[in-house]
């Protein structure tokens, strides 16, 4: 009753325009019948609210409110543990990204040397050039530049084992061994894995017993994929917004280079990439394997080669909210290390990925799926 009187009254004061608009809407919806108008208005509001809530559910949100994802930055890591090289494009071959982690340092027992035992390794800056033969140019503080030709089939073959997945590589010769041994202050030699068909035994991550339940076809890693000195997959991806979310929690921001990723995604929400099972860039398809467990490598400052100068960050902060045990349906094989980024494989052996390319999510993890 009082609402009818208020609506029929002449509007006064600052609310005049709002009242006139409200009355017009009610009359348009319900005609002369105020009760019908209010009912229609209520139904409309309820429908709008329901639609807004439904859009927050991932499947409907992706269907009704699609967004554009793009390649924001690309990084190449020619020598495992050495400095990253930012590039405008990455080429694919049978081992993943061409020249990515194809060289590595081996210790006195042919163990792969990384930034964990050798943080100064990140100060080595590599450059790769093609031509008749692949050439690796190395520079480091206090060292003369060194050019290393990719060894041919007559080079010594070295057996090594990385993360329980064996492989073989070609020794790059005594000059490179002396250069690295002097810089690192320990015995070391440079090894190389070629992508072309040859007598080198390539590592197959799907054979890693911890992650295949005794059956290579059930491995979390893409069956049939081969790698050189990458830990377990052919590539890694993280979104810029995931890094932004982490940096908001830190007293001092960290650069993305600390995490040694290949693809930096633009346009997603923080950690949205973790909901993807596969994604496409152009006609190329990539399959997510599992999340990246973080060891002590991100503790190393890529500018100084020092570890621990950041008071345990960013690992300490990641442990507060990014432990695997905090995720639903977590696979018990994961360690207690924090997670950041995704690992992926591909069966595409040709093609190019460029900065600015559109990235399309293809399939998604379903609610209740085991989280890797």
Give the helices and strands, then pairings.
Elements (H helix, E strand, L loop, with lengths): L1 H7 L7 H15 L3 H21 L3 H7 L4 E8 L8 E3 L1 E5 L2 E2 L5 E4 L5 E2 L11 E5 L5 E6 L2 E7 L7 E6 L2 E7 L2 H11 L4 E4 L42 E5 H10 L13 E4 L9 E6 L2 E10 L21 H7 L17 E7 L6 E3 L3 E7 L8
Parallel strand pairs: 13-14
Antiparallel strand pairs: 1-2, 1-14, 1-19, 3-4, 3-18, 5-6, 5-12, 7-8, 8-9, 10-11, 11-12, 13-17, 15-16, 15-19, 16-17
Helix pairs in contact: 2-3
Keywords: Membrane, Transmembrane, Transmembrane helix
Protein name: MOSC domain-containing protein
GO molecular function, one term: pyridoxal phosphate binding
Short description:
With 372 residues, the protein is α+β, with helices and mostly antiparallel strands. Helices cover 21% and strands 27% of the residues.
Give an account of the 3D structure.
- The chain folds into two domains: 1-63, no CATH class; 69-371, no CATH class.
- It contains seven helices and 19 strands.
- It has helices at residues 2-8, 16-30, 34-54, 58-64, 174-184, 240-249, 315-321, and strands at residues 69-76, 85-87, 89-93, 96-97, 103-106, 112-113, 125-129, 135-140, 143-149, 157-162, 165-171, 189-192, 235-239, 263-266, 276-281, 284-293, 339-345, 352-354, 358-364.
- The strands form four sheets. Strands 1-14-13-17-16-15-19 form a seven-stranded mixed β-barrel. The protein has a five-stranded antiparallel beta sheet with strand order 6-5-12-11-10.
- Strand 10 (157-162) and strand 11 (165-171) form a beta hairpin.
- Helix 2 packs across helix 3 (34-54).
- The termini are far apart.
- The relative contact order is 0.13.
